[in-house]
Write a structure and sequence with these properties.
mainly beta, Jelly Rolls, elongated
Length: 190
């Protein structure tokens, strides 16, 4: 899966003043499972290290919180002239918005943003029929089980130490016992 450029501009921050800490700049929407960003300033002083902070702004899929307004679901600092690759959190609605918070001392900033769509070839939602269930039947048999991703209530589990796949069976051996209310999602990325 390749990277697609979604933003490549030189920003001129005309509203930048010394009394505002950060100037918000809306980049636009994205659909990728990963985002990469680099920001540089040809007029930067040698003592400047921070280019900006990037925020992924979205609503959550979870029905209990899906009605809340979009909020920052992830924030990362971007070093000046440093390439940063970011995994977009699971459990959010797509498309999401990208916002940069630029420090007031930058009067201009060259920004490039790319997205990479990670589209699973197979996806299945699982339900524990009883508390403590640790074996699940899958509707597919991954050819490379280590290329799967398992999410429990939106938190990524680690293959080999928390779960394993044998054929079309998922085996859970994580420390946290699974409950019937847990949202369990398995993705095959190959």
């Amino acid at each position: 899966m390749s990277w697609n450029s979604i933003f490549n501009e030189s920003l001129t921050l005309i509203n930048a003043t010394d009394d505002r800490r950060f100037i918000p700049v809306e980049i636009g929407s994205a659909n990728g499972g990963q985002v990469a960003i680099v920001a540089s300033n040809p007029n930067a002083r040698s003592t400047w290290f921070l280019a900006c902070t990037v925020a992924i702004v979205a609503t959550y899929i979870e029905p209990a919180i899906a009605t809340t307004p979009p909020s920052d679901v992830l924030r990362q600092r971007i070093g000046l002239g440093k390439y940063k690759q970011i995994d977009v959190p699971s459990g959010i609605n797509f498309p999401y918005q990208i916002r940069l918070d630029v420090p007031h001392w930058h009067r201009s900033l060259d920004v490039q943003v790319w997205e990479r769509r990670i589209i699973p070839t197979d996806r299945q939602m699982l339900t524990a029929s009883a508390a403590g269930q640790n074996e699940f039947a899958l509707s597919f048999a991954p050819t490379q089980p280590e290329a799967t991703e398992l999410y429990i209530n939106g938190i990524k589990a680690t293959y080999g130490s928390e779960y394993r796949i044998e054929g079309d069976r998922l085996l859970w051996f994580g420390e946290m016992p699974l409950e019937s209310t847990d949202e369990i999602e398995i993705l095959d990325l190959l």
